[in-house]
Specification:
Largest sheet: 5 strands, parallel
Number of helices: 15
CATH superfamily of the largest domain: Ribulose bisphosphate carboxylase, large subunit, C-terminal domain
Mean pLDDT: 96
Structural class: alpha/beta
Helix content: 40-55%
Low-confidence stretches: none
Order of helices and strands: EHHEEHEHHEHEHEEHEHHEHEHEHEHH
Length: 370
């Protein structure tokens, strides 16, 4: 791949007889935004018009169209890169963003994961097995109730305990109070277990709010955070992770609204823009991703086609203690399994503790093959 080109693949619905014209329009829409005959600027004609790499039929009147766009068009800016990838053409309902490969200079600009899988393993102290994670939910818990649940999960031996993505700065559960109490809960549990779970607070809000929460989390001693990049905006997310100095787990909320393939968005763009671990819907749960898509997301995170650190796959949804081994058999042990409802639907704290210990035991028992 050339350092001066961005490779983009679109899934395009078009009449075969009009395909060439539609591809030409798609090529120009993302950069110069006008027909070649109207390009009187020599630099635009010679340096800002991309080229067609290939078109491949994949169904009736459906094609994969691979384009190479000039890297110069991205202007070395995260937001402008997205504009070139899927700006105006995202408003055209016959096209979806299927795949992307970013050249080395733009990869260096974005930086990718600052910690990645290796950093999360070092932080949690987990080597030689998968990581077991759970979530504090539902929305409506008080800070004290969230901390009590956090303590129960930590006593069960969970490696990572994160806020639900719906836990914001609610009056019943203020951010700073929740973070302080949950960190205290993991410390208290560690007195019994000898090992402290990693508590991960959720940063959510307008950019100024997220920056304030990031400062508060740092001051209170949180060692990792969670962010929903599509709620915040990928360029703002990229700027945030540059200054955090701690791992970031990315949540996929709002990720299905852009007509971008899950593999391109969650498996490639999220880590390119700085996610160290990426949560995504597991096949067989309440979401619609099939096994091929889920396996491809995990593969893209672990084996990036850009020169960035591998990020940790975090499948979630439809996973229970009883099927944890089967899920790990599908993904392999270089995974963080996230189980929420499968543990929290137990009737009381004692039952949640027992079910969580069953889940932890299943994760610990799965053989590791790096």
């Amino acid at each position: 791949m050339a350092d001066d080109e961005i490779e983009v693949v679109y899934r395009l619905r078009a009449d075969p007889s009009a395909l060439d014209a539609r591809v030409e329009a798609l090529l120009l829409e993302q950069t110069v935004e006008m027909g070649r005959e109207a390009l009187r600027c020599a630099h635009a004609r010679e340096h800002l018009v991309g080229r067609v790499i290939a078109t491949e039929p994949v169904g009736q009147a459906e094609f994969l169209v691979a384009l190479a766009q000039p890297a110069e068009a991205a202007a070395g800016d995260p937001a402008q890169l997205l504009n070139v990838l899927f700006g105006n053409c995202s408003l055209q309902d016959d096209v979806e963003l299927e795949d992307v490969r970013v050249p080395a200079p733009l990869v260096r600009m974005l930086c990718g994961p600052r910690f990645g899988t290796a950093g999360l393993r070092q932080l949690t102290g987990v080597r030689g097995r998968a990581l077991a994670a759970s979530v504090l939910k539902p929305m409506g818990l008080t800070a004290r109730e969230a901390a009590s649940l956090c303590r129960t999960l930590a006593l069960a031996g969970l490696d990572v305990i994160k806020d639900d993505h719906g836990l914001a700065d609610h009056p019943r559960c203020p951010f700073s109070e929740r973070v302080r109490m949950c960190l205290a809960a993991t410390a208290e549990a560690a007195d019994s277990t000898g090992r402290r779970a990693l508590y991960v607070p959720n940063l959510i809000g307008a950019p100024a709010t997220v920056l304030r929460q990031a400062r508060e989390a740092d001051e209170l001693g949180a060692e990792a955070v969670m962010v929903s990049p599509m709620l915040l905006g990928l360029p703002c997310f990229n700027e945030l992770v540059r200054d955090l100095g701690r791992p970031v787990i990315a949540h996929p909320a709002f990720g299905g609204a852009q007509r971008i393939s899950p593999v391109a968005l969650l498996g490639k763009l999220f880590p390119l823009f700085g996610a160290d671990a990426v949560i995504y819907p597991n096949t067989g749960g309440r979401f619609s991703y099939g096994p091929e898509v889920c396996a491809a997301i995990a593969r893209a995170l672990r084996e990036p086609d850009a020169a960035i650190a591998p990020a940790l796959p975090v499948p979630a949804g439809g996973i229970r203690a009883e099927n944890a081994a089967a899920v790990l058999g599908f993904y392999g042990a270089d995974t963080m399994l996230l189980v929420g409802g499968g543990l929290l639907e137990a009737p009381d704290a004692g039952a949640i503790l027992a079910r969580s210990r069953q889940f932890v035991a299943a994760v610990h028992a799965f053989p590791y093959a790096p």
